[in-house]
Amino acid sequence: MDPNAKKTTLRMIPYGLYVLTAASGDRVSAGTVNWVTQASFEPPLVVVGVKTDAHGHALIKESKAFALNVLGKGQQAMAFTFFKPAERQAQTISGEPFRVGKTGAPILTNTPAYIECTLETTVEMGDHSIFVGKVVEAGLTKAPEGRADDATLWLKDLGDKVFYGG
Q1: Can you list the positions of beta strands (E) in 34-91?
Q2: What is the mean pLDDT of the chain?
Q3: Are 70 and 18 in contact (CB under 8 A)?
Q4: DSSP string, 8-44
Q5: What is the DSSP letter of 63?
Q6: How far apart are CA 28 and CA 86, in angstroms?
Q7: What's the Cα-to-Cα distance from 161 to each of 2, 10, 71, rounded to whole Å?
Q8: Could you give the CA distance from residue 71 to residue 74 in angstroms, rounded to a whole number?
Q9: Which end of the chain, N or C, is less packed with Cβ atoms under 10 Å?
Q10: How far apart are CA 107 and CA 73, in angstroms?
Q11: Regarding beta strands 45-51 and 65-70, do their DSSP bridges make them parallel or antiparallel, or are they unpaired?
Q12: Calpha distance 44→59 (Å, rounded)
C-alpha cells in the first residue's frame, strides 16, 4: 500500500469536532476528538475512538459514561484548548464553564449541543479503543440556523495547524 495514498484517502473522510468529557469523583477529563459517528437509531448509539493513553480513556472505563460536546462554527479556539491536558478549577475545565450532566460527565455550557452516553461496550484494538455509548440525554444550547451539520465545526476548519496521523 502506498503510504501517501493511504494518508490522503483517509483525510478525505469528513470529521466533525467534539470535546469528549468524562468524570470520576473529583477527576475530570476533556479532550478534542473527531472519530465519532452514530451507530444505531434504536437504541440510539454513538461510537467514539479514544487513544488508549488519553486521560479520558481511563475515566470512561471507570465511570462507564461520557459526554460529547459538539463544537460549533467559530469555536476553533476551544478545539485547540482541549488538544492540551485539561485542568479543572471550580466549575471550569481549562477555562470553559461546565455543569454536571445526568451521567456525571461534564457538559460544557458554551457549546451548541451535547450528547450524554452510558458505556455499552468497548472494542480495544491498536492504539485506540472504540467506545460504544447509549445516548441517555441530548440537548441544544442554541438551535442551529439551517442544516444542523452546517453549524458544526469540522476538522478541515482548523486548517493545516492540526497534525493528521497516518
Answers
A1: 36-40, 45-51, 65-70, 88-89
A2: 91
A3: yes
A4: HHHHTS--B-EEEEEEETTEEEEEEE--EEEEETTTT
A5: H
A6: 8
A7: 24, 17, 17
A8: 9
A9: N
A10: 18
A11: unpaired
A12: 22
pTM of the predicted model over 0.85: yes
Count other Cβ atoms within 10 Å, centred on residue 96.
20
pLDDT digits (tens, 9 = 90+) for 6-22: 888 877 777 889 999 99
CA torsion 149→53→58→116, rounded to 10°? 0
- Are 71 and 153 spatial neighbours (Cβ–Cβ below 8 Å)? yes
Cell 452510558, located at residue: 118
- Give tens-digit pLDDT for 74-128: 999 999 999 999 999 999 999 999 999 999 999 999 999 999 999 999 999 999 9
The DSSP output letter for 82 is T
